[in-house]
């Protein structure tokens, strides 16, 4: 099934290329480029690092996040573009939907990335380092260390670092070491001290030392005069390289780092389980083709060229860094510096409490649905729901999806405990990007504990967030209790990702969730998952249907409006439906954190559409969709963004919120709060640029407001209380 609108393209039999049914220039003027849009999202994160209104260590953290984001962009998006260039070699180059070749796309991206990297290091050198120095936090070079600091660093080197190092001099018997993805290394140019007659023109040897990943990148030094000092690990190693390469004169020493293609190229094989296939591909990922070389700006051209040639990179794939090669490691500063005044004030979400008349969580859910807005509402309520199911003897079976979890997760432990006395089924998504290794481990541990572990439908990531408990209640009736969410079952990220959880015993939702689990474990498609919208089966068409319904309401003079919050919006069929709704008179407000291909505010096309992005203390991750529906509001939440990968390439669930007070909370307390933000919001312009929301006499920050609401909540009875406690 495809969510793409079939009438928008035709296929040329002679070339196989797509030809637009309307002039390409007109069609493409309606859509913003997804990669450009992603770069602008990362720019908004960088702006938070540049913003002096944010606490200093939070600014360092934002800068580290931009670097981590850019790493993934290279590993996936840039790597994919390079793969297409390679696939097109010696054959007519394919044009993408914007009418450009993969090489042209790469050239344009490279220019944008170069500008962004320059801005990152300008932020570090000109803004953060001086501000840190004022706060007596210093990242020092080796030559800047005093005697006490130097002795401490040398002691650390002797005890912790030196035993882990493997220096390599490249020659016929010592080939270039296999540099793993994103591993920090030192490159050296070496001249042998025992130079013999006639060897004057022999080029210097190349030496390589891999910096151990198991050690912190920032080494804490003794505090003196109130200063909190650090030295980068590679600086410490650089200062000792002569000891590793005795007999050589060290001409050059520079840090470098290689990023590799991390896409997993999976193929279904009867002889292999999905777990075995993913495990094999993970091994290949560590050695994928190089897509980027980062190297210190001080590196002489000779070593740059030798490394570039070794990794088979074009000159534009080399990025010279005016500072630490791996900015993402600056995250260590945030955790190592114990200065609360330089961080956001601590916040703990409000704990959910049962109603006074309820004896346990199941009794509560028979009375009403429960909705939680994390992290403003503590995630412990979700953990408590799963833990209650694990220990309650009346719970007969448990089913759950796991996309990403964390070490020592209470949910993970509860599932293992539950398997000792009841039927437990878990659908583990092995290909959750960059969590594949840990998910393989979780899957094996669950299997060893007696859990039935499945991996969904081959070729479709299982991205939906569902848990289903079946319980024989005190009245003898067997009921289903469900958790439906927008975020991963990960209590760590739940503290700084905004997400929605719905706990319910509502029959229509729970029975539909059962159908989804049957689909995931047996590949049995149902013709009706109502009231759930399920990808890749019903979601794409029903989403467009909901948008078109608003158009009909507008044409009939009934209330018609859409407010939708998501992480990304690039699905063209959905965007075209939104354009049509705007032209029909529907007022549309979109809160899109990241990529957005829709072009708002274009006369005659999208003048009733407004798009904003909010980047703040918490990562906006919740997906909430409100449709006015002629005055009878419909509100949905779910795991899916409005992107092709979510609508047609993943198993997703979008669920309605039916209880009137909860719909009102989503509409009035949550969505309207984000629309009022005039501090952290950026507004997307018709040309694709983002501008700050207009300043107001009264600054308003949505996340701050929602935190203040949570801190003023009343307490009742703890959720973890079970019947008979």
Q: Summed up, what is this model?
A:
Its EC number is 2.7.4.1. The protein is an alpha+beta fold and 725 residues long.
Secondary structure blueprint with pairings:
Blueprint: E1 9-11, E2 18-20, H1 24-28, H2 34-50, H3 56-87, H4 102-134, E3 137-140, H5 147-161, E4 168-169, E5 184-192, E6 205-210, E7 218-220, E8 228-232, H6 233-238, H7 241-244, E9 248-260, H8 274-285, E10 290-296, H9 301-310, E11 318-321, H10 331-336, E12 353-354, H11 361-367, E13 370-374, H12 380-391, E14 395-402, H13 410-418, E15 423-428, H14 436-448, E16 452-454, E17 461-462, E18 465-472, E19 478-485, E20 497-504, H15 507-522, E21 533-535, H16 539-555, E22 561-566, H17 572-584, E23 587-592, E24 609-614, E25 619-620, E26 624-627, E27 634-638, H18 644-648, E28 650-656, H19 660-676, E29 681-684, E30 690-692, H20 702-711, E31 717-718
Parallel strand pairs: 3-8, 10-11, 14-15, 15-16, 17-28, 20-25, 22-23, 23-24
Antiparallel strand pairs: 1-2, 4-6, 5-6, 5-9, 7-8, 9-10, 12-31, 13-20, 14-18, 18-19, 19-20, 21-28, 22-26, 24-29, 26-27, 27-28, 29-30
Helix pairs in contact: 2-3, 2-4, 3-4, 12-13, 16-17, 19-20
